[in-house]
Amino acid sequence: MTKSRRRGESFEPRIVAFCCNWCSYAGADLAGTSRMQMPPNVRIIRVNCTGRVDPLFILEALYQGADGVLISGCHPGDCHYTSGNIKMRARYALLQNLLEQAGIDPRRVHLQWASAAEGDVFAEGVSMMVERIKKIGPNPMREGE
Amino acid sequence: MTIRVAFAQLTSCWGCDQSLMDLHMRLLEVLPQLEILYWPAVVDYKLADLEALPRNSIHVGFVEGSCRTEEDVHLLNVMREKSKLLVAWGSCSCYGGVQGLANIWPLAELVERKFQRAETITDARVPDVNVPPFTEHIVPNPDRVKFDMILPGCPPTSDNIYDIVVALLTGAPFELPETTVCDQCPRKREEKHITRFKRTFEGKPDPEKCLLDQGYLCLGFATIGLCGAQCPSANSPCKGCFGPPPSVKDHGAKIISALGAIADIDPEELKKMFPDPVGSFYFTDYAASYLAKIGAKKREER
């Protein structure tokens, strides 16, 4: 990953986005080909389904210094594998509780739905995520880079 | 040849010693082959005796408990220096133990709660004479010094300890299993479809059926299969005290992953059912989790 800027300078968050192959990855692609504007802070990792996103991936991303983790998948009911996104939603709920209790801002991890046709929703989600993380500040694991 | 052994106790309940004692008559098979160099729980040796030993003079050193005080850190370092082979004995030593749950709070807050705001205290003061200072947070022993072997458990069963001691005496290989408590559990499992999680005191669990199927948070599926499924066999859900199998990096993450797949519950409802996720999902291994490490870093910065 690229080097982050120090405190005092404007903070550019590094965000890991897990996008499902069938909806959000295609949605992100559409946003790109349609030349929609969004901040370049997101590194997308394509997964087959948000149901494949083990909470371990999210915690490990934070541990390795990601300022935020965005998970983007199909709308409930639209999952290519019937219910992967519903499972992610339940995991996300538990993870939010866990992060909060552990003293880590739960807004660092965000789950959103964006279909293949919703490039605008994806771009909007990314913009909001970046804004949110800018307010929260850098991940403490990034210090000393 | 006699094997020179030492047993060191850091911050812990000394339950692992109790479990070793529970070997009863089987101890007689092992004891003649052991030369005990240090074991405060049963033999009157002092720290100075251990410190006086030459480097690498202990064949096998067992370390129980975690480092809550600077004295513990010192004892751990001495054990490492004097032992050829060092064994992390019990969940406290391997993962930080129940004490690790305290990592959610900063040390100052813990000290204040314990020594100044505890309900039974009348003359509040923080002890500072003849006591070692506390460590900032619990760090699992294997993150402090190198260990050659770990044996988790809270406590490891007498059989586990017997197995490891026999393996050490005979040179037989000893590997932690990748199986889970579920593999050892005699209960009948069905398709999992949970609509409500129950607290342990609610209702009466069916002694034949899988506890998780019945809606009790039984963590057998994410916990290493060493204990012989003692708790589920006694109609009590597994609390995950032995920690995860070796290939699982983060116990809680694995538990959340599995619960998400089987819970047929509205997310908001689900949140309410687990008001204490750290306590529920990381009973003895929070100090070894990613979150505890991030939290420690965050506090260091302040």
Poorly predicted runs of chain B are none
Mean pLDDT of chain A: 92
End-to-end separation of chain B: 54 Å
Biggest sheet descriptor of chain B: 5 strands, parallel
Total count of helical runs of at least 4 residues of chain A = 4
Q: Summarize model confidence as the mean pLDDT of chain B.
A: 93
Query: How big is the Rg of chain A?
Result: 15 Å
Secondary structural class of chain A:
alpha/beta
Q: Which protein chains are joined by the largest interface, and how many residues does each one contribute?
A: A-B, 30 and 34 residues
Our count of domains of chain B comes out at: 2
What share of the residues of chain A lie within helices?
25-40%
**CATH domain class of chain A:** Alpha Beta
**Series of secondary-structure elements of chain B, N-terminal to C-terminal:** EHHEHEHEHHHEHHHHHHH
Note the quaternary state here.
heterodimer
Helix-strand makeup class of chain B: alpha/beta
CATH level-3 fold name of the largest domain in chain B:
Rossmann fold
CATH class of the largest domain in chain B: Alpha Beta
CATH superfamily of the largest domain in chain B: NADH:ubiquinone oxidoreductase-like, 20kDa subunit
**Strand percent estimate of chain A:** 15-25%
Q: Tally of extended strands of chain A? A: 4
Give an overview of the whole structure.
The complex is a heterodimer of chains A (145) and B (302). With 145 residues, chain A is α/β, with parallel strands linked by helices. Chain A has one domain (15-139): 3-Layer(aba) Sandwich (Rossmann fold), CATH 3.40.50. Helix content of chain A is 38%, strand content 16%. Chain A contains 4 helices and 4 strands, in the order βαβαβαβα. Chain A has a 4-stranded parallel sheet with strand order 2-1-3-4, sandwiched between helices. The longest helix of chain A has 18 residues, at 84-101. Chain A is globular, with a radius of gyration of 15 Å. The termini of chain A are close together. Chain B is α/β, with parallel strands linked by helices and 302 residues long. Chain B has 2 domains: 3-170, 3-Layer(aba) Sandwich (Rossmann fold); 181-294, no CATH class. Helices cover 35% and strands 10% of the residues of chain B. Chain B contains 14 helices and 5 strands. Chain B has helices spanning 15-21, 26-30, 47-52, 70-82, 91-95, 107-115, 141-144, 158-170, 181-184, 230-233, 251-262, 267-273, 277-281, 290-301, and strands spanning 3-9, 34-38, 58-64, 83-89, 149-151. Chain B has a 5-stranded parallel sheet, sandwiched between helices. In chain B, helix 4 (70-82) links the parallel strand 3 and strand 4. The model of chain B has no long low-confidence stretch (mean pLDDT 93). The A-B interface holds A 51, 54-56, 58-60, 62-63, 87-99, 101-104, 139-141, 143 and B 104, 249-250, 252-254, 256-257, 259-261, 263, 265, 267-268, 270-271, 274-278, 281, 289-295, 297-298, 300-301.
